[in-house]
Molybdopterin molybdenumtransferase
Amino acid sequence: MANDLLDYHDALHTLLETHTPLQRHEDVALAALNHRMLAQDVAVQHNVPEFDNSAMDGYAINGNALTQWHVVHRIAAGDAGASLTLQPGQAARIFTGAPVPQGTTAVVMQEKVTHNDAADTNGGPTHIHLQAGETIQDGQHIRRRAEELRAGDVLLTADQRITPATIGLLAGQGYTHACVHAQVRVTVFSSGNELVPPGQPLGPGQIYDSNRIMLIAWLQSLGYAVTDGGNLPDQLAPTREALARAAGESDAIVCSGGVSVGEEDHLKNALTEVGELIQWRLFIKPGKPFTWGRIDRPDHTCRVFMLPGNPVSSLVTFQQLALPAMQRLTGLSAEGARPMQWKAQAAFTRNKPEPRREFVRVTLTPNRGDSPGQWHVRPVAQQGSNMLSGAVHANALAEVPPGMLVQEGDTLTVYPLFNQI
Ligand SMILES: Nc1nc2c(c(=O)[nH]1)N[C@H]1C(S)=C(S)[C@@H](COP(=O)(O)OP(=O)(O)OC[C@H]3O[C@@H](n4cnc5c(N)ncnc54)[C@H](O)[C@@H]3O)O[C@H]1N2
Ligand code: MOO
């Protein structure tokens, strides 16, 4: 166990290198795939498009140099139009996505033609005329067979993160399931005799437990299989037993509180007794007591992340350290698991240096006027590590390196809160 206060970037680097994707895989139905990581390559099994089809509502024509055509077919999406044929001078009324008939040289948008009033038996015009001044490019508005995807090619590669677009693409290929990395199982604890679950009355000296539900909701929204481990009392034996039990059925434990130096802070000792404490304390503000470690079981390793109890310290160390490590377990690369980062200009000054690397809760907004395209950051009023309202009014963390005095216009690295802007 190392007791030196680690720098944030060293800690993040070590976490990303020492946490690697779990090797359990499973087949999952499309609707439940968002955020999951593909475990193997997926092939294109159907050409896209499967057949030449119209990109517009209008007319498939034969004869691009002509200015009028005789309408002989009507082809809607879903019709088997590819078996029909156009002779020179003929056209087919056609709709977006419908197969073009044999002999089609181009599709003309309906806005570009006029037609006579006589109607055929389907209610459509019998002749169409190209409007004056319009020209036709060879093959215009025809989406060609296999122009997007060709059967047999690779559709998606392993270790790609699934988004709603991926799910649509898989459905478009007729897939109902995909083989993905198994969900990472996480047990979330809070710790502290003062904590009461929301909904119950508060006694003297008690406060509501904010952190546990904040972390559970966050992890669930990212697709983790989350177990609520409850609140741990400020006692060593039950804490040790709860960690040992959770390690048997989890890939990770996330807990908050009880990792500082007071005699009621039992989490670190409990971890040392049932597993290994790898690092305690970082040179950061907030979040100095952040701790990580591991508990080995015969068939798997459970990673342990102990967040400082102050709610903002929990939030910041979770986003900046614990979550990137857990994202590695889901199958993401070290680069892909890093917190999202941005550059922005300080719209504030800081004359008093802070020795620790600080993650200031800020509002990140685009500059307007003089330097559009630039972003600037301004700290929110409530900066206490106990003040969750500050994190609610902020949308990013601005990193201020140790000892740095900030001048207006200085460039800072910023991390959007919840990795979204
Ligand atoms: N003598 C020292 N005292 C403290 C130090 C230190 O270096 N020397 N570090 C301070 C820093 S920095 C932090 S951060 C906190 C973190 O301490 P713990 O992780 O042990 O957290 P607790 O003491 O259990 O709680 C701190 C604070 O947060 C409240 N809390 C805890 N859990 C929750 C929860 N789930 N929901 C809402 N609020 C929670 C708790 O009631 C305390 O007010 O230690 C400093 N002390
Ligand atoms: O590090 Mo503590 O998290 O400053 O409040």
